């Protein structure tokens, strides 16, 4: 891949920034160089104008046309979730064939961290960025779309300036919940990591749509947040045991969470899937190693990685913005393979 400029961009000078901010050139210089002795309100005002004008210091700007690092940054919220670890591995394997290396950038869902990562592209410390999570406004990212190659994957954003790759998350939430309903479960819980993610919000929307179609009301006490892994799955099973009207199934955000639920349920003498149904997400290897094996929403992480790299390559060739939506499906396994007509160990209480 080789980055090609997509039109001439007027580069502001330090004098321009100083004039717009109403400060001296020395103050602008101190802000650029992260000098500690600048009042916070001045720093914020100057930095806002620097960001708005896409200002790059002259020492860096003179090399913009020829500098290439052969580094692509991959922005992830964290590395706790197996999905992101697998996605980074797939991206890295593909880029290695193109003689590119991956720089892992953890944001922890913090906009200020993502703002720093964008600056790496603007100042040519990186040739491009792949966002697998996005807390910044899309407008901030669009402002640097001419400074380097940028692709957003896994997140759902509306943009005409940046290429995107995404799963149909709303359909995933809908199909997973519908599968549980068709298996006879009627009190279905839902868990997520954070609703800061638009992808998670769309998945939640699909879950609610399936409930609505079956004339079932949403129970807020059955919605669990901040769920990431095995221990969270165990925690939810424990919490449900104290509920008067406990769920009889769970739509989880990952196979790892589902595995934690199954392990704790078995320890407590709850039979999966007879008494409680569990559906995972991502079709990880863990889903077939568990006993019972885990029904899961299948997504192709390899396909997401491949299409993200393809879109980066197309940008380097000056091609236009594209939007790719990847298919999903439900793979039925033992964790929801319930006998027909079975009633769960806690019948639904009808008021």
Automatic annotation (TrEMBL):
<dbReference type="InterPro" id="IPR010982">
    <property type="entry name" value="Lambda_DNA-bd_dom_sf"/>
</dbReference>
<feature type="domain" description="HTH lacI-type">
    <location>
        <begin position="12"/>
        <end position="66"/>
    </location>
</feature>
<dbReference type="Pfam" id="PF13377">
    <property type="entry name" value="Peripla_BP_3"/>
</dbReference>
<dbReference type="InterPro" id="IPR028082">
    <property type="entry name" value="Peripla_BP_I"/>
</dbReference>
<keyword id="KW-0805">Transcription regulation</keyword>
<dbReference type="GO" id="GO:0003677">
    <property type="term" value="F:DNA binding"/>
</dbReference>
<dbReference type="InterPro" id="IPR000843">
    <property type="entry name" value="HTH_LacI"/>
</dbReference>
<dbReference type="InterPro" id="IPR046335">
    <property type="entry name" value="LacI/GalR-like_sensor"/>
</dbReference>
<keyword id="KW-0804">Transcription</keyword>
<protein>
    <submittedName>
        <fullName>LacI family DNA-binding transcriptional regulator</fullName>
    </submittedName>
</protein>
<dbReference type="Pfam" id="PF00356">
    <property type="entry name" value="LacI"/>
</dbReference>
<keyword id="KW-0238">DNA-binding</keyword>
């Amino acid at each position: 891949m080789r980055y090609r400029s997509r039109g001439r961009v007027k580069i502001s000078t330090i004098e321009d920034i100083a004039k717009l901010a109403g400060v001296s050139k020395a103050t602008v210089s101190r802000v650029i160089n992260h000098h500690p002795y600048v009042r916070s309100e001045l720093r914020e005002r100057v930095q806002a104008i620097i960001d708005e004008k896409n200002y790059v210091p002259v020492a860096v700007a003179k090399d913009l046309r020829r500098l290439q690092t052969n580094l692509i940054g991959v922005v992830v919220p964290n590395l706790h979730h197996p999905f992101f670890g697998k996605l980074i591995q797939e991206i890295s394997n593909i880029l290695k064939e193109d003689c590119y290396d991956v720089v892992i950038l953890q944001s922890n869902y913090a906009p200020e961290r993502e703002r720093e990562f964008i600056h790496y592209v603007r100042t040519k410390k990186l040739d491009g960025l792949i966002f697998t999570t996005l807390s910044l406004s899309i407008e901030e990212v669009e402002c640097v779309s001419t400074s380097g190659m940028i692709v957003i994957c896994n997140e759902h954003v509306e943009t005409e300036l940046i290429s995107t790759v995404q799963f149909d998350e709303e359909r995933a939430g809908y199909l997973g919940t519908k599968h549980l309903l068709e298996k006879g479960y009627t009190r279905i819980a839902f868990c997520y990591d954070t609703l800061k993610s638009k992808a998670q919000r769309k998945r939640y929307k699909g879950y609610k749509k399936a409930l609505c179609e079956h004339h079932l009301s949403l129970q807020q006490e059955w919605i669990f947040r901040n769920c990431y892994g095995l221990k969270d799955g165990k925690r939810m099973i424990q919490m449900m045991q104290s509920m008067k009207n406990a769920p009889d199934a769970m739509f989880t955000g990952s196979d790892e969470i589902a595995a934690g639920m199954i392990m704790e349920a078995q320890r407590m003498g709850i039979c999966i899937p007879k008494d409680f149904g569990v559906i995972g997400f991502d079709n990880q290897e863990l889903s077939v190693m568990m006993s019972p094996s885990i029904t899961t929403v299948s997504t192709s992480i390899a396909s997401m990685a491949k299409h993200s790299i393809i879109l980066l390559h197309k940008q380097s060739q000056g091609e236009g913005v594209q939007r790719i939506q990847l298919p999903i499906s439900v793979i039925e396994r033992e964790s929801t393979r319930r006998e027909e007509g079975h009633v769960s160990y806690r019948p639904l209480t009808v008021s």
